[in-house]
Amino acid sequence: MKKLIIQSFSFISISAALALSIIAIYASGFALIDPKFHRALCCALALITIVLLPYRKIENSIKFLISRITLDFLIIVFGILTVLKFYDVQYILENELYDVTYFDGLYSIVGLGIFIEVCRRSWGYALFFVGVFAVIYLYFGSHFPSFLQHSGFNERLIGENLWYNMNKGVFGTITNIAVNTVFIFILFGVLLEGTGAGHTLLKFAFILTRRTRGGPAQAAILASSMFGTMSGSVVANIVGTGTFTIPMIKKRGFTSTFAGGIEATASSGGQIMPPIMGAAALVMADLTGINYLSIALAALIPALLYYFSLFSSVTMEARKQNIEIKELDIDSRITVRDWINSILFVVPIFLVIFSLLFGSSTSRAGFYAVISILVLSFINPEIRKNPVKLLNSVIKGGTQGAKLLIAIVVISMLVGAIDSTGIGIKLASFMNELRGDSLFLSLTLAMIGALVLGMGMPTLPAYLIIIVVMGPALQNLGVSVLIAHLFVFYYGVASSLTPPVALAAYAAAPIAGSNPIITSLMAFRLGIAKFIIPFAFAYYPCLLIIENFSWLEFISIVPRLLISIWFINSALAKFDFTKLSWIEVILRLSVGFGILFMDVRIQIICLILGSFLLAWDFLRHKRSI
């Protein structure tokens, strides 16, 4: 009997995930679904998928006690009842005047508790505490000190604001963006991986970098930038590319710590690389009202600067460890099969870009991409031999979408709490008082807040939490909406590299066989440019191209940023052409940061000092040959 129940739960979870993928394809390509029904249905299916997900693993069957099975069954039953209650109340509100009752409020409290618990199972305690804080703050905020205090909410008001509201809360705007726009691109990323496009991307990356000293490390950067922009997940990117690249980086002669660190930084960088940016650009477009292609264009130069930083770090490390150029232990020929398989990622990407250029919505562009890859996947002989692989990818896409939606639901609770209490405006005022007239101090406070709020969370949920909390305060500084969003987004991504909770480094360390803490410190060092670039485009908006663009300013700042990145990276590596002394390290750090100052006199002094430091190091290198 127990075995039958477990098998049934497994089948239900798989069916729910498959249904989510089918709904995503239908909603993005064929017809809009009634919003209240669409959001309720997707949340219910996501709940079923995630709660019953462990039952898919046969090896777990002996671990499930009857008490656990019963609890999971009750969670699903009561979870579905609370979602149905939301739909019922919304249906009534569309047809007549209705006040949310105390009884409705109790339903909402149960629903909030269930989704928070499911989020804990899926994402751990970071997001769990976000949801708990949102509910506790609404309940007991009247007793909080200073600007955190509000008038107080009872069960009925909590339900009205967090559960039965189509603009904020669990079924609000952010959930709507997830089910209408993000889902289809999650499915797209998973299909790219499952149909063999990921392996082809890797091979092209290895071929392009086979003549460089960094070799596999450079290939990891290139492959991760291409794959990461589509996958939407740092961890998925590391697992997808790192299992192949990390052993080859180590084989070339790099240390385990460096191999794990460079894969972590490269994979996290995929989230800031246009055109897809891990679906974050799509969400940003909806939240800001700025055209998606404009956001992708704005993010291009900062992303290229970041990858320049990674390539330069690998070059310095290769010199430091005296690693020479040599042939890779893989077939260096690009075969006809490779060229054919490249269609799997070239065609969908071009379809996304061209459909957006010709006025299609982002969700419709995602639909075209998914349909094209479903059709084109059959050019891969492995898919033709075993079409079940394609079905498994569709199910995996639904599962990943369900997992993300659970996180979005909990973040929406925080959004609803902040919106209902007005704490966001109060926080902005508090930051204004704290910062005085200093833009630099304000940006620094925003950076610290973003890094803390984003620790331990995937990119998209981290970005959403940070922009909700820090966004109003940043815009009060006079920076534009786009700069504010990109600024916090960068630090949401950077939080995955920031010790002690460096999610990307912790994912890469087991593959590399290195210490997670040491790997996180290495990733932090290698990804230092991600902490500098947001300040650069906050002070020099021309880097985003679409805002306050000036050729003179652009030509001035880009070379200075390249010099800054080179000097800071070499200082942290303590190596350029030769080993650097501590005095040279300090001087290079001074040049690296000083050259970004807006005072022209400081820039000239740094350029002169930097030229001298480079010449001295190069001459020392020549003498040693």
What does the secondary structure layout of this molecule look like, with pairings?
Elements: H1 2-29, H2 35-51, H3 66-95, H4 102-123, H5 125-140, H6 155-163, H7 173-194, H8 197-208, H9 216-231, H10 234-252, H11 256-269, H12 280-288, H13 292-320, H14 336-357, H15 362-376, H16 381-385, H17 388-421, H18 423-435, H19 439-454, H20 459-475, H21 481-494, H22 503-512, H23 516-526, H24 529-539, H25 551-573, H26 582-594, H27 600-624
Helix pairs in contact: 1-2, 1-7, 1-15, 1-17, 2-3, 2-17, 3-4, 4-5, 4-6, 4-17, 5-17, 7-12, 7-15, 7-17, 8-9, 8-14, 9-10, 9-11, 9-13, 10-11, 10-22, 11-13, 11-22, 11-23, 13-24, 13-25, 14-15, 17-20, 18-19, 18-20, 19-20, 19-21, 20-21, 21-24, 22-23, 25-26, 26-27
* Major sheet details: none
What's the total count of β strands? 0
Number of helices: 27
Topology as a string of helices (H) and strands (E)? HHHHHHHHHHHHHHHHHHHHHHHHHHH
Helical fraction: over 70%
User: Segments where pLDDT lies below 50 for 5+ residues?
Assistant: none
Radius of gyration: 25 Å
Mean pLDDT value: 84
Oligomer description: single chain
Distance between the termini: 76 Å
Structural class: mainly alpha
